[in-house]
Amino acid sequence: MEFLSYLINGISLGSVYAIIALGYTMVYGIAKMLNFAHGDVIMVGSYIVFIAVNQMGMPPLLAIIISMALCTLLGIVIERFAYKPLRSASSLAVLITAIGVSYLLQNLALLIWGADPKSFTSVVGLAPVQLAGGRLVISGETIVTIVVSAIIMAGLIFFVNNTKMGRAMLAVSEDKGAAQLMGINVNSTIAMTFAIGSALAAVAGVLLCSAYPTLQPTTGAMPGIKAFTAAVFGGIGSIPGAFVGGILLGVIEIMSKAYISTQLADAIVFAVLIIVLLVRPTGLLGKKISEKV
Amino acid sequence: MKKAMSLVLAAAMAFSFAACGGASGTSGAASTASGTAIKIGGIGPLTGGAAIYGNAVKNGAALAVEEINAQGGLQFELNFQDDENDPEKALNAYNNLKDWGMQALLGTVTTQPCLTVAPETAADNMFLLTPSASAVDVIKEDNAFQVCFTDPNQGVASADYIAENGLATKIAIIYDSSDAYSSGIHDKFKEEAATKGLEIVADEAFTADNKTDFSVQVQKAKSSGAELVFLPIYYSEANLIIQEMNKQGCTASIFGCDGLDGLLTIEGADTSLFEGVMLLTPFAADAQDEKTQSFVSKYEEKYGETPNQFAADAYDGVYTILAACEKGGVTADMDASAVCDALKTAMTQITVDGLTGEGMKWEATGEVNKAPRAVKIQNGAYTAM
Amino acid sequence: MNMLKTMKKSTRSNLITYGIVVLFYLVMQLLASGGVLSNSMQGMLVPICTYVVLAVSLNLTVGILGELSLGHAGFMSVGAFSGAVYWMIAGQNLPSVLGLAIAMLIGGVMAGVFGFLIGIPVLRLRGDYLAIVTLAFGEIIKNILNAIYLGWDSNGFHFSMKDATALNMGEDGKVIINGAIGISGMTKASSFTAGIILVLITLFVVLNLINSRAGRAIMSIRDNRIAAEATGINVTKYKLMAFITSAFLAGMAGVLYALNMSALAAKKFDYNTSILVLVFVVLGGIGNIRGSVIAAAVLYVLPELLRGLNDYRMLIYAVILIVMMIFNQSAQVVAWRHQVWEKLSTIGLFQKLAQAKKQNKGEA
Q1: Given B383, C49, C200, C241, which residue has the most CB atoms within 10 angstroms?
Q2: CATH number for the domain including B250?
Q3: Model pLDDT, residue C80
């Protein structure tokens, strides 16, 4: 029974990682860049919801929509001013710029909202599900997070494979130059990717803070790194991979805390990651890359 | 060559930026001081993950300095520098303050940087009074004093209090093993608990990088049948743990140290969950005495938030320096080493009635003598136990 | 002067790099002896040397070998802790120069061993996957070091992962690594001179490696691995060579860093530190060793110079980082800069400068 309970907790944590990882993998898959600022966009999104709900008394759904809109805008602005000028530079240059953006967002949040932790009120109204006479409890947040990330995953897969914009994204991710020759507007496609990724970040932020209700300027940093790990675990660039990777990472983390050591849980998670990558060098569901001379 | 060239250009740009900033910063500071004020430096994390503590200390100290300067008499000037909770940056901040002409140091706020800065101050014979770095090693040198309790003190006091008042016999601990404060209290608490016949049924750690999910720790505490959960941690993590306990239906009572103070001030928190939480704290923001009330209202007015224990420690720290300066006859024209010598002897002779304790006295070792108060949260407010 | 002109281009470029370091040392010593060097600057000299060594060694992995590593702080911490442990039990009883040298050697070798152990499996991976594995390695090391308790008494080492009391030491025992609190109460040994010597050693090792047969093999792997393999270059061997050298130097830098302070905690060596060093490398120019030296020194000092900005310090630092990146790397901005340069060069005053620059460009 304890094991099942740990498993549920693991899936619950994993679903939060999964939803963050979806944003990471989406941007990586198309723009081929590690967007280290993704975790901080999540933080900004959470603050917007917190202020809308707690200080302005808006209904949660409206707050989430506002947060998604503002984060989309933020994503587009970041892309336009920080990443777009570096489109033809090395991917490392963009990585460093992303880190600069991450510092910028954290310190802006610190100046605007202060360092005091805020306690986020869960936006999920669903009551926990009791199983086995109350010995197993699945919280409403867990159910909502899993359902939402599954919907987002399905939606993204559909969008990428079946819409014109989505196929343009696939084309850009395969070969920027060729895509341009085929009449695809590479810049607007990449901007679109960031817009979607940032809107997803807003949703992820709300669910992260609903499940683990504390909000600080650094809230996004560590979950961001973990989710990035999850995305690599599942095969970065692969949308179902991000989902699977996220859930697995959460379960491994909780299980190693429960049965090995709470102190060394991170070390164990990362060690598992290394082992998986050694066996499958492109992650669980990643594409094999064939090399040409 | 091209790269190097553009780097130099960019660097030049950055330097000019810095020069403007530096100029405006110092002119701002100069307007408050007329060269007759004693220069007090402060070091603490103003950015990064530990920014809550550094900013609270900065604000509390600034408030005290403002009051003291308004009273006339000895004048103070405060310069508070960021260390990002990084020992290396703390050392840089310390050197920076020395260039500024610091005569006494209020800091550092967190333990790890303080372990690095304290030996430097000893070598320079610079007076050090830390508001909140609570490890014993921090005050190893004779120039270093503390406003807060030491960690072992709190661990022992907590175990004694629980045993003597019969609060529980089966105890679970959840602590931050990557934090010096938390693991310091934890170790002593365990030792003392064993001698007092308390049984530790679960001893669970977490780390600074892994403090999002507490489901495992709470579940282990719950299934171990603990009657009381001891939380020698800070309030933002405690908030998460208490919410998780509520979620899992764990009904054990909660006991903490001064780090838990601040729970009631978390914006947006459901304070009904904190009912019955017990803590040993030197400071309570809603205490009824006049001194605390005036401090809290001034602080709220100025910074828009309720002060926590760090702000109170810093406030007391500045008044302690004032008392010691008056006792030791320190004036603004003395150099740092002379100030240190005077303050070192004066510290053991003064008694300070502060927010965090009545009649605080210091040992020559640097440790403070004050009694922790045990309080319980009832109806959303602290009540004495 | 004639000799300078007839020299090989790479040799001359290297001499300039050494020259910059030596000049920096002399100027700083002169300022210090004149008493005009601020405490703040004096305090930063050893960290500057540390970060220069780290940046140059990371540039070997990132720029010369062409593999992204996000775990450089991990190697630094291995070096720092092993060097510091040696220093605590034996080194501080020796004359400080000898003790420091041995500690550095131990730190470097330990970090090199870790570089080897991690290098073998990890270098199979490519690009961003390698990056994440090195990041994971750094986090694992930090996590484990945070949980280690190490004591020393007449019976030797005592080790525990639980707490300090579990070490069961004799009367004369002392706790060396105290979990998350790390090592405290060290006597300091690092000095600016030692730091500069380490920088020069690092430059010597890296620059010579680059200009050697092995270095050319390493760069050929970077430029085209398959073609390199086809010409009979042992890819694994040369990759490991670069990786281990880089780790070894990072370990030595770690010791320099550790013995510059009286306390050492594992928390410092997280991915933020790795990324900070990477920032130095990228801004200095990937593969450009002299650029790394300058970038590390300038960018380390920058946040300290910004202290006057108070609350806005880190914000402005972030903005400068982004602006510098775009200024240095964006295709449009670079083109614009060239235009401006051309225009300026038509003005008589700048003509000489422009000529000099053209000459340099021809050589670079």
Answers
A1: C49
A2: 3.40.50.2300
A3: 96
